[in-house]
Amino acid sequence: MNNTSKPIEAISVIDFDSLPTSAIILSADDVNRALDISNKVPNELKQWQVYLNSLALSAFENWLGERGIAKKLNPEKCTILQHTLASVIDVVTNLQIGDFKICLIATGNLADETVILPRVVIDLPEYVAHFYVVVEVLEEQEAANIYAFLSYQQIIERCASSHLQPDSHWNYHFSMSWFDDNPDNLLLYLRCLELDAIALPAIPTNRREIVSRFESELINLLPQLQSPERELWEILTWEQAIAVLTSPDLLNWIYNLQIQAFPEVKPQLSVSYLPDLLKLITQPVLNAGRWLWNELDEVAQDFSWVLLPTLTPTSAMRSPAEEFEIIVAQLRDRKEEIPLESRAAFKDIAIAGVPLRLYAVTWHLMSESEKPEWALLVILGAPALNSLPHHLKLRISDQNNILVKRGLEIGNNDSYIFTRVVGNWDEKFLVSVSLMDGVEVTLPTFAFDLER
Q1: Name one Pfam family in it (predicted).
Q2: What is the distance between the alpha carbons of residues 161 and 325, in angstroms, rounded to a whole number?
């Protein structure tokens, strides 16, 4: 961590006497957890604030426990416990107490009587809260004080009446005098207030369209975040930032890109993968799981996929099913496992005037893993088993990286290219076919959901 932290020691009697009676004492475990969380943040300049945020969360948990409502607390979705969000949001939000959402504002200095709130937790419905709580973190004394709070409704009213605007770093500056400095009132609201008394804005349903609108700009701008010290507000407009801050996949990509600056992390993420990730986010999703029920979903129908009959030990079918049976027999000769219960579909495509046929085969994997898995076998060939162009490439990506690139080996006259990927039911795959730089066809994203 950039700021040198004090060794963990017992609080002296003098320190204890100087603490307010409302202070929450932080344990060694609280401090160690805060250190661990902050050390996972790639931007060293932000590690100190993340450290304070984690201590604020521990203090708030302890405060609720002392008042008998800790059982209602659910911190699983709060931003400080998700490295991708802790790195870009300077407060702790999405903390759940019953049905209420809480945002904690950790500060080590109340002398200037100003509370700084990031725009993201006021203007983006994904991160707004019913109550915003100021937590004074007395780091040197390993203690904290639940100081004051304000409701979302009051924040919106204050912004409107004071014509408050965010600064260039996307922060709002609130006067501490606007906050209720009696935290017991917060407890009363959490116990007695009806949820609809504080209406939060609905999350828009067009987030994918927003990413699509800025796709080309994000391809050029986001690689600049490879340096952990660069922040979103330095390179993006607020409208572009909305696309990023509301996309978990893009936030995960940025975090994985930046942690490669850590000496112990080997570079694994290529900037060249970003266009595939954006397509995964914005492209329609094709549910291959429906094939096992002998159904094509609406996306598959819109993109002219054709479901093939169930595989049989012998073949007496017409083309293209007959061609597919020939390919399957060749793959099985190569020890490629394709179970009889799998289902396949095909689509004819053309790239640079070259006619091609893409087969996709899917099945449910029997696994001892807690998460069920599925397999996707992709076969790229030409109608009537004609030879393929030698520069043809088949690429598959998931939400994290490019998984495989496959082409014809020099001197190989195979009439098809194939590759197989495996994922959990919540994983998606993007399949792209390219002939040369800039000449590419991307298929709708493949997903697998037997319940839809």
Answers
A1: DUF1822
A2: 71
**pLDDT for residue 109:** 78
Distance of CA 152 to the CA centre of its chain: 25
Q: How far apart are CA 431 and CA 446, in angstroms?
A: 8
Q: Sign of torsion, CA 343 348 351 355? A: positive
Strand 393-397 with 402-407, pairing: antiparallel
Angle between helices 248-258 and 274-282 (to 10 degrees): 170
Q: Where are the domains of the chain?
A: 13-197, 207-281, 283-447
C-beta of residue 292 within 8 angstroms of C-beta of residue 362 = yes
Q: Which residue has the higher pLDDT, 269 or 364?
A: 364
Cα dihedral 309→310→315→316 (10° resolution): -40
The beta-strand segments (E) located in 238-342 are 285-287, 306-307
Rounded Cα–Cα distance for residues 211 and 128 (Å) = 21
Residue/partner pairs of 268-275 with CB below 8 Å, 24 or more apart? 268/401, 269/400, 269/401, 270/401, 270/402, 271/223, 271/226, 272/402, 273/397, 273/401, 273/402, 274/218, 274/219, 274/222, 274/223, 275/219
Q: What integer pLDDT is reported at residue 17 of this predicted model?
A: 52
- In 3D, which of 147, 127, 138 has the Cα closest to residue 80? 127
The pair of three-digit structure tokens given for residue 234, joined into one six-digit string: 């330095």
Q: What is the DSSP letter of 205?
A: S
Q: Return d(Cα 361, Cα 421) in angstroms, integer.
A: 11
46-66: average pLDDT? 95
* Closest of 211, 245, 207 to residue 84, by C-alpha: 245
Angle (CA) 289-295-298 rounded to 5° is: 90
pLDDT top residue among 437 and 90: 90
434 vs 444: CA distance, rounded Å = 15
The CB density around residue 177, as the number of other CB atoms within 10 Å, is 9
Give the whole-angstrom CA distance, residue 415 versus residue 381.
6
Q: State residue 452's pLDDT score.
A: 64
Could you read off the pLDDT of 128-168 as tens digits, one per residue? 999 999 999 998 899 999 999 999 999 999 999 999 999 99
Separation of alpha carbons 259 and 262, rounded Å: 5
Separation of alpha carbons 382 and 390, rounded Å: 12
pLDDT at 416: 86
pLDDT in tens, 314-336: 443 346 788 888 888 888 888 88
